[in-house]
Amino acid sequence: MPDASHAFPHLPHLPGVGYKAQHFTDIMTDPAPVGWLEIHAENYMGDGGRPLAQLRVLSERFPMSVHGVGLSIGGEGRLDPDHLARLKHLCDWLNPASFSEHLAWSTHDSHFLNDLLPLPYTSATLTRVADHIDEVQSLLGRRMLLENPSSYLAFAESTYSETDFLAEIVRRTGCGLLLDVNNVFVSATNLDYSPQGYIDAYPLDAVGEIHLGGHDEDEDDFGAPLLIDSHGREVVDPVWALLDYALAKSGPKPVLVEWDTDVPDWPVLADEARRASQALSRVLV
Prior knowledge:
By secondary structure, the chain is an alpha/beta fold. The protein has a single domain (4-284), classed as Alpha-Beta Barrel (TIM Barrel), CATH 3.20.20.150. It contains 9 helices and 12 strands. The strands form 3 sheets. An 8-stranded parallel beta barrel has the order 1-2-3-4-7-8-9-12. It has a two-stranded antiparallel sheet with strand order 5-6. Helix 7 (195-201) runs parallel beside helix 8 (237-250). It is globular and about 50 Å long.
């Protein structure tokens, strides 16, 4: 497939949404207030077909962000060269404005685990993650963003806070960061710390995108609240408030609403994007 000559060099400081094929006609007809779109890389690594044809049409009109979920940046083994090659092929022809991945691991030996699993924050894991990011950035020829995880436990062996770990990754690799404020809220609730304190310590100057989405509420074995990052419902008011807090400190950023399961009709998702637009309007000057 030929290179995209229509590429947008940057994501705008506008709301974006995760693209789903059932919304194609609605987006092409009346996308407001959505100003950019995100795709999951692994859904577009095939050759040809209707999904790639629709993606090309969308990319001629909207800045695109490619979000990976399968690189296993935090894994102990080497990155999968076949997966990297497919990712490079996608980024070469689509030429997205942004590429991002998760601070997590999802592979062991030759097995792929259908989850994004946490890792301890130690010098050894920092070196491994930095080496993997260097490899990805060198191969793709572009800066990548690294997303903070949603956490359900803390590792006793960690010697860095998450924010210090991310800051050191940025210093060593030159990568950017994707701040997921729902993940901050989920982790802060599950591990009993202040989400605002986390934002205060976060290296906001490195942020290239902000994400937010819905989560599910549960209880742990002791009856304490347990939040699950699900991307399957509306964003709750405390997460919108945390977005306001982050934007007040960072200034305007591209803000994405994620909704990946139980995907609603377009008007519902567009309403979430309008709320993100309102949040951005409070800091745009």
